[in-house]
Amino acid sequence: MDKSKFSGTGVAVVTPFHSDLSVDYDSLGELIEFLITSGINYLVAMGTTGESPTISVSEKEKIFKFFVQQNKGRVPLIMGIGGNDTRAIQEALERVDPSGFDAILSVSPYYNRPTQEGIYQHYKALDKSTPLPLILYNVPGRTSSNITAETTLRIARDCPNVIGTKDASGNLKQGEDILTNRPDNFILLSGDDETAIPLIQCGAEGVISVIAGCFPRFFKEGVDAALDSNHQKADEVSKLAQPIIDLLFEEGNPAGVKSVLSQRGLIKNHLRLPLISVSESVHTHLSTYVKQYK
User: Fold this and answer.
1) Residue 274 forms part of a structural domain
2) Which of 100, 146, 191, 285 lies at 20 to 30 Å from 74 by C-alpha?
């Protein structure tokens, strides 16, 4: 597997909606164009930021096809397929049309709170079913369960179709442990914007980002600097990005991103319940950065 395919800045793309909360494909097309022309290296369809828990199976299938049609092979695409029922995910992996996609991102089981052995066995099962290279997604803030470095490395060694992990633990020590002991062909991507640039400076290949979904050129500049060992520039961007990241997540993701994108005129500011739009206060604070980073 070519590691460079997923190096740099990836974006977990939001799902735009009309006022009746149907998927707004015209806006999704504009958004994909905006991200690609802004230099984003690859895109993730139907990650958590895409409000995947409230998107039906038939909607997801249509969205996946739309990404492929809109992308036209310009950047690598990652398909989000995950959940907390291993057998159901296996069935989804066997049913899905992988055409036009380069990998699958699968979140660690949530709510069930499996043991580390349970997590290992979960990915062992998915490894046998996946039609594409598989990337783990460790996001303890959402799943209430951390995939430890030890378990990640065990999966990396034993599951030939698992090519890497998106680690959103925010734990740099855990990331460093993975980097030190990983197999040569295993990639580490940050899933936490706050610690993304420091983790890349430690040797990670890149980030699947939220902030880059609405401030793409700005954040990519910092990621590229980190990859080029321009630590002064990378640290500068990381510092400037922190207050924006705080605002984007203050009232939940992707509410913050959708606020920014709506202010940019790319989408309408609609979310499906139980998510709601950010407060007027956060919307106004974000507007200062929209003006600053045109």
Assistant:
1) no
2) 191
The CATH number assigned to the domain holding 111 equals 3.20.20.70
Q: Name the residue among 82, 97, 160, 156 with its Cα closest to residue 131.
A: 97
* Residue 153 belongs to some domain of the structure: yes
Question: Which residue numbers are catalytic?
Answer: 137, 166
Rounded to an integer, what distance in angstroms lies between the CA atom of residue 233 and that of residue 213? Answer: 20
Angle value at C-alpha 66, between 78 and 205, nearest 5 degrees? 20
Reading the block at residue 200, the tokens are: 């890349």
Which of these, 101, 106, 113, 98, lies nearest to 162 by C-alpha position? 106
In this structure, is residue 185 part of a structural domain? yes
What pTM does this model have? Answer: 0.96
Q: What is the pLDDT of residues 69-80, one digit of tens each?
A: 999 999 999 999
CA separation for the pair 181, 23 (Å, rounded): 43
Backbone angles phi, psi at 228, to 5 degrees: -90, 5
Give residue 184's domain range.
3-232
Q: Is 116 exposed, middle or buried (0-12, 13-18, 19+ CB in 10 A)?
A: middle
pLDDT in tens, 137-178: 999 999 999 999 999 999 999 999 999 999 999 999 999 999
- Structural domains counted in the chain: 1
Residue 128 counted as domain residue? yes
DSSP designation for 50:
G
pLDDT in tens, 18-71: 999 999 999 999 999 999 999 999 999 999 999 999 999 999 999 999 999 999
Helix runs in the chain, H state only? 25-37, 57-71, 86-95, 116-129, 140-143, 149-158, 172-181, 193-202, 216-227, 231-250, 255-263, 280-292
